[in-house]
Amino acid sequence: MPGVIPTDPGERDLLAGEYVLGTLDSRMAAEVAAALPVDAGLRASVEAWEARLAPLTTLAEPEAPPPDLWERIDAALSPRPAPRTAAARPAWSGFWRGWAIGASALAAGLAAMILLRPDEPARLMTVLMTQQDQPAWVVEAENSGALRLASLNPRPVEAGRVMQLWALPPGATAPTSLGLLPTEGRLTVSPSSIRPTAGMLIEISLEPPGGSPTGRPTGPILFIGRLTAAGAS
Amino acid sequence: MRAEASLADLLASVSSGDREALRLVYQRQSTRLFGIANAILRDREAAADAVQDGFLRIGQRAGQFDPARGMAEAWLAAVIRHAALDLARRRGRELPTDDPTLGDMPVAPEALERVAAQFEGRRLRDCLGALDEKNRKGILLAFVHGLSHAQVAARLDLPLGTVKAWIRRGLLQLRECLA
Description:
The complex is a heterodimer of chains A (233) and B (179).
Chain A: H1 9-21, H2 26-35, H3 40-53, H4 69-77, H5 85-88, H6 99-114, E1 123-129, E2 135-141, E3 147-151, E4 162-168, E5 176-181, E6 186-189, E7 201-207, E8 221-226, E9 228-230
Antiparallel strand pairs in A: 1-2, 1-9, 2-3, 3-6, 4-5, 4-7, 7-8
Helix pairs in contact in A: 1-3
Chain B: H1 7-15, H2 19-41, H3 44-61, H4 72-90, H5 109-116, H6 121-129, H7 133-145, H8 149-156, H9 160-178
């Protein structure tokens, strides 16, 4: 989308300031993020604003992250098969502890039941969870790069709205649409422009008929999960 | 010794693919960085996702950090903030502005003194103090809590149409004052 970034130096610097402040909407923020690697002037403006406002970060109260967060990061950095105990452990008591902790074990367990055949190699998969940590869809990446989806607990969608599937590769600033979805069932989606990778976020958003008019999610994220390597049991 | 390496040195190692260096960065900075993400998202699960996404970006982009152009702490905070802001936008920034966990801390009078507690923050404190109150509060709420223009307007009970202009004017004044 050429021409979105202004040419006037004053406007460009203010845009950089608003980008650093965080008040730009999704579309403009993505435009700025996309321009940074190729626009050295804009990059210098953004760096100057980051430096000016950096002392404000002390206003956020430090808080200890969840104890398993480094393990999640480590696993997302280099996909390894999940421990074999993940699928076999008696996970049902802690089943609803939230997708952050439970999703990989859940994915391994559910996938073993639903999708995987024994003795297959580790695969990338996830369970998309609702905001209330209820499982909604199982997503599994095939070696071809296609994604197989199966709904778990079909729910009605608001009248006149549709569900749209998105993928956000690690480090990307904007998700890629993978198309519209039925409200339930099984299907295979073959993304043309991206390949599933460990750490990739998969999201389903609620959109107007025909899908998002902007190319980015416009409605609430209904279900979300992160692809991780699940050990075959 | 590794344990005494500076953050800048650790980031240089991270850029050559050193996972242990990234783990040390995490060990030293995760409490501060998680706090920054959680102030924006006000949801520990989401903040953990943002920090995870941020550390993947740090792993990929550590080579872009240039110690000659800034502090490693500020660079790390910026990466995490943008990861958290991106997630807040993807969630539609549906966070209610009457959320009880959304404190008044960033706009409380003592907040400016906290900013000035670091040497680099003193001039910023003085320049923020010189702004009109509504401009200053809008900037602080947007930066610390990731509020959109609409949320700043609702939070400060100001008309939406003017908030964007006020914040821009505040940024311009800050830039001039800090020059």
